[in-house]
């Protein structure tokens, strides 16, 4: 397996959940990848987007909004004035993402354009945290599916996606229907399943996100962010119970193969 050299890991925060401790992520990465520099850059818009480019960028982001989960969005779709203004306020940090679903790959392309040209390679691990909810199109069942992350340049991790994308326990959905019919408080239902899934402003959020950050790292290292071992932090979880087990409940962090890749240190930049 060919292992790439890593130059630097660069972290961006584009409005992620307040419960996410990015400094905790930094310390974790420095412990796991001792010879690689880890840098926190903050808001990519504030860093790289000139003031006269805000409106155009807002229009592009608004055009990635998914109107119908069963119809593939087109980057050529023209957004409404109100949608553009909302994204403009979002870029300027005057509001937070709420109730909008974006095409994850189109969103990734827009963030790619913000990255300095000299850093647009896999030796630079760009990881962007956001609370935007995004989805990717599945050709098999011809619909969009919400995702926690998309990997590439940059890798994007959604704290909202971590709550909404992996499915909750089946019993939760059955009881939710009953609660809604009876008009009962859904907070009571969440209490019944406390700990079974990741929720908004969950105190476990940072620990769980560490696994997704390592998936981004392994994408740059070997081109594959995932593992088939359900106890490995690189496991591609589709259910909340799988997320909780892989990131919090397993007796080990990484399977033997991925642990060896980390320990061998072939990824350490010699420059």
Please describe what this structure looks like.
The protein has helices spanning 22-32, 44-48, 54-62, 81-91, 104-114, 159-164, 170-182, 186-192, 205-222, 240-249, 256-264, and strands spanning 8-14, 37-42, 101-103, 124-130, 133-138, 143-147, 149-150, 155-158. It starts with 7 loop residues before the first strand and ends in a 7-residue tail after the last helix. Helix 1 crosses helix 9 (205-222) and helix 9 crosses helix 10 (240-249). The chain has eleven helices and eight strands. The strands form two sheets. A five-stranded mixed beta sheet has the order 2-1-4-8-7, sandwiched between helices. A three-stranded mixed beta sheet has the order 3-5-6. Strand 5 (133-138) and strand 6 (143-147) form a beta hairpin. The relative contact order is 0.15. Helix content is 41%, strand content 15%. The protein is globular, with a radius of gyration of 19 Å. It is of the alpha/beta class and 271 residues long.
